[in-house]
Amino acid sequence: MNPAIALHDLTVAYRRHPALHHISGRFEHGTLTAVVGPNGAGKSTLLKSLLGLVRIDSGEVEVNVARKRIAYLPQQAEIDRSFPISVLDCVFLGYWQKQGVFGGISQAMAARARDALLAVGLHGFEGRAVGSLSAGQFQRVLFARILVQDAELILLDEPFNAVDAKTTEDLLAIIHAWHVQQRTVIAVLHDHEQVRRHFPQALLLARRLVAWGDTAQVLTESHLHQAKHMPEATDPHAAPCQAKEAV
Ligand SMILES: Nc1ncnc2c1ncn2[C@@H]1O[C@H](COP(=O)(O)OP(=O)(O)OP(=O)(O)O)[C@@H](O)[C@H]1O
C-alpha cells in the first residue's frame, strides 16, 4: 500500500542554506508521529514542504492524500487573529476546503460545528470574537475547526505552545481519537516525555534525519545527543549543497 507521504531525498534550502538535508522516509497511513529536534532543526519547514508552502531544492515529496483532506495548524505566531470573526465562523472555515467559499453552511453543518466546540470545551463561546480569546482557548477553536474538516492527514505545528496542562490534556485526547479513527497525524513537539507517552512514532531532525521510527528507538540518549550538537548557525561561506552528496 502507498504510504500517506513519502520523502525522497528531500532537500529544502533558504537562500542556499539547507534547512532540510537529504531526508528520506515514509509516513504510513493512520500513523501518529511526533517531529522533534532542536530549534532551527527544520521541523516547521518539513511540515511546510508537505503542503507545498516552501520551494523544494532537490528530491521529492510524494503526498498520497487529496489536498482538501489535509488539515494544517501552523504555529500560533503565524496566525493573524486581529480580523473580526466570531468563534463559530472560525470553525466554519474548516468547511471551506471541502465546500469552497460559496458552498454555504447547512443546518447540519452548523450543528456539527457547535458539537465540535462542545467537544473542545468551548460551548457558549460561539459568538465571541476570536481576537478576545486566550491563546489556549484559540487553540481549542482551531482544533474544533479541524474536527469539522474531517481531514485524513492532520499536520500540527507546536500545538501545545502557550497552552496550559488541562488544555493540553484535552487536545491530546482529541489527537488520540484521530489516531483511533486511523487518520494520519504529524505533530511538531518539544516535550520528549509527552512524545514518549502519547506518540508511537517519532522523527528526530537536526536539518538532516537523525532517526525515524518507533519512539522508544528514536528518542535514545545517543540520538538526542547527536541532534543537540547540530551546529547552531549555518556557515555563510559553505559551498552550495550538492544534491547527491552523502548525508
Ligand atoms: N523564510 C525563511 N527564510 C530564511 N530562513 C528561514 C526561513 N524559515 C526558516 N528559516 C531557517 O531555516 C531553519 C529551519 O527553520 P524551521 O522553522 O523549519 O525550524 P524549526 O525546527 O521548526 O525551529 P523551532 O523549533 O525554533 O520552531 C532555521 O535556521 C531558520 O532560521
From TrEMBL:
Transmembrane segments: none
InterPro entries noted in UniProt: AAA+_ATPase (IPR003593), ABC_transporter-like_ATP-bd (IPR003439), ABC_transporter-like_CS (IPR017871), Metal_Ion_Import_ABC (IPR050153), P-loop_NTPase (IPR027417)
Pfam families the record matches: ABC_tran
Region (Disordered): 226-247
The ABC transporter domain, residue ranges: 5-232
Record bears the keyword Phosphoprotein: no
SMART domains (UniProt xref): AAA (SM00382)
Keyword terms: ATP-binding, Cell membrane, Membrane, Nucleotide-binding, Transport
GO terms of molecular function: ATP binding; ATP hydrolysis activity
Keyword ATP-binding annotated: yes
PANTHER family attached to this UniProt entry: IRON TRANSPORT SYSTEM ATP-BINDING PROTEIN HI_0361-RELATED (PTHR42734:SF5), METAL TRANSPORT SYSTEM ATP-BINDING PROTEIN TM_0124-RELATED (PTHR42734)
Family in the record: Belongs to the ABC transporter superfamily.
Name of the protein described by the UniProt record: ABC transporter family protein
Organism the protein comes from: Collimonas arenae
